[in-house]
Amino acid sequence: MAKRSRPTLRRRLLGRELRRLREETGLSQEEAARALNYTDSTISRVEQGQLPNYHALRAMLDVYGLTVDQWQPYLDMYERARERGWWQAYGVDDRGFIALEHEACAVWEYQPGYVPGLLQTADYIREIFALSRIKHPRRWIDNQVAVRLKRQERLTADPPLRFHAVVDEPVLHRVVGGRALWRAQLRRIVQLSELPNVTVRVLSRFVVAPDGWNGMFIVLSFPDADDPDMAYAEHSSGSVHIERKDEVTGCRLTFDHLASLALAPTESIALIERVAAEL
Q1: Chosen CATH of 87-278 out of 3.40.1000, 2.60.40, 3.30.1710, 3.30.870
Q2: pLDDT at 82
Q3: Which GO terms describe its molecular function (predicted)?
Q4: C or N: which end of the chain has fewer Cβ atoms within 10 Å?
Q5: How far is 201 from 268, CA to CA, in rounded Å?
C-alpha cells in the first residue's frame, strides 16, 4: 500500500524522456542494458526516476541515436533534476511529503483534528509542537515553523497551488494557545480563503459519523498527466504515502463525499468569523 520514497518530478520527467528515446530506437530494456554494459534493473530504475551520473546519461543518449548537437535539451533536464529543493536547507530530504507537495498543482486535505498546515500561523505551529508529548528543543521547533511557513508560499506563487480543505467543526472550537492566538489563527484562515485558489469548507458537528471522517488524509495531483495522483496520511506513529490507484481514488472519493456534506465555502467562512468574534 505505502511507499516511503518517490523520485522528484523532474527526475521522473527525465526518466520518461529516456524511456521514450529508447523505445523510439526499437531497443528493449535488456538490449539497451547490453549496449551500455548495465544491468536490466539499472535501465528500469533510471526510467522510473533514478538519476544516472552525467557520463551515463551521455552514453545513453549516444546509444539511443542522438547526435551531440541534439544532447543539450536532455543535459538541461539533467541539470534541473540535480537541483536541490529548498527544503534540503532545512534538513528535509526528497523522500518526504514536502517534496511531493512542492511538485503538486492541486491538493485536497481533510482535517478532523488540526488546522491544515497550509493555513496555520507561526504561533499556532509553535504551540502545536510545544503541546506534543515528545519534547523538542527550541531550535528544532524554529526549523519546523520556518519549513511550514515556506510551504505556504505555494498558495501565492505563480502558478499558485490549488488548495481545497475540509475541516471538522470541532477544530474551530478547540482553542489552542489562548484566545488571542486562536482568534488570529481563525482570521488567518478567513484571509487565505479569499485567494481564488483556496477553498475552505467546514464539516458541521451536526453531521453524524460520515464515511472517512475519523482520520486526516491528503490527495495530491500533479501537472503532468503521466504522473498519477497520490495520497498521504498521518497517524499517531508516523505517516504513509499511498500510490495504488484504487486506494488513491478511494481517498479522493471520500474527500468529495465529505465536501458534499460540509457547509458551502461562504457559510463555512461565516461560521469561522462568528467563532472568532465570540472569543
Answers
A1: 3.30.870
A2: 86
A3: DNA binding
A4: N
A5: 5
Residue/partner pairs of 87-92 with CB below 8 Å, 24 or more apart: 87/147, 87/150, 90/143, 90/146, 90/147, 90/150, 91/143, 92/147
Q: Which residue has the higher pLDDT, 3 or 249?
A: 249
Helix axes 29-36, 40-47, angle to 10 degrees: 110
Strands 238-242 vs 198-203: parallel, antiparallel or unpaired = unpaired
Is residue 44's pLDDT more than 50?
yes
Instruction: Please give the Cα distance from 244 to 212 (Å, whole number).
Output: 18
**Which range has the worst mean pLDDT, 11-20, 117-126, 256-265?**
11-20
Domain chopping of the chain, boundaries = 9-82, 87-278
- Which CATH number fits the domain 9-82, given the four candidates 1.10.260.40, 1.10.230.10, 1.10.10.10, 1.10.357.10? 1.10.260.40
- pLDDT tens-digit map of 181-191: 999 999 999 99
Looking at the predicted structure, is the pLDDT value of residue 3 above 60? no
Greater pLDDT, 115 or 39: 115
Q: Tell me the three cell numbers of residue 10.
A: 523532474
What pTM does this model have? 0.81
Residue 50 CA from chain centroid, whole number: 19
Which residues of the chain form beta strands (DSSP E)? 106-111, 162-168, 198-203, 217-221, 230-235, 238-242
Name residues whose C-beta falls within 8 Å of residue 130's C-beta, 6 or more positions apart in sequence.
141
